[in-house]
């Protein structure tokens, strides 16, 4: 899976089935990918090879527009190790104005029924989880699990009828 990666500034959906071999990219793009992998390995995975292989392949699948059906949970007591940077790099890879990545500081959609901000996203980065009581946290966790593992979801917007079975392409970084 590491042979192909798509790192053009904006990734049109048609490229999902038309990836370019990594070797065919220019040195600048290859250097960018290697820098991302180095940051991932050193900072996010603390040089743990098993964790790094998992994260690298998760990132590559995302670059290839393939849902991972898992969430990456980045937890540390240390500030400045690259938790937000990881999501920002994915946002940069897709094009910062593409609206495919959302870095969210307020995840009210975990507590509410309105969730259309997930529509059309390939990545939802949850910077801070909301404070919830035990019952609400259980409900939010179930909702998040459904979004992570199912390829379709009911998307609800305020004042508009819910649309069941909408395709989801989103993966989560928490």
Percent of residues in helices:
25-40%
Radius of gyration: 17 Å
**How far is the N terminus from the C terminus?**
24 Å
Within the largest sheet, what's the order of strands?
A: 1-6-3-2
- Report the average pLDDT across residues: 78
Q: How many beta-strand elements?
A: 6
**Protein structure class:** alpha/beta
Major sheet description: 4 strands, parallel
Which stretches are poorly predicted, pLDDT < 50 over at least 5 residues? 1-16
What does the overall shape look like? globular
Strand portion:
15-25%
Secondary-structure element order, as H and E?
HHEHEEHEEE
How many helices? 4
Task: Provide an overview of this structure.
With 174 residues, the protein is α/β, with parallel strands linked by helices. It is globular. Strand 4 and strand 5 (160-167) form a beta hairpin. Helix 1 crosses helix 2 (49-63). It is built from 4 helices and 6 strands, in the order H-H-E-H-E-E-H-E-E-E. The strands form 2 sheets. Strands 1-6-3-2 form a 4-stranded parallel sheet, with helices on one face. The model is unreliable at 1-16 (pLDDT under 50). The chain starts with 26 loop residues before the first helix and ends with a strand. It has helices at residues 27-44, 49-63, 83-94, 134-149; strands spanning 71-72, 101-104, 123-126, 152-157, 160-167, 171-173.
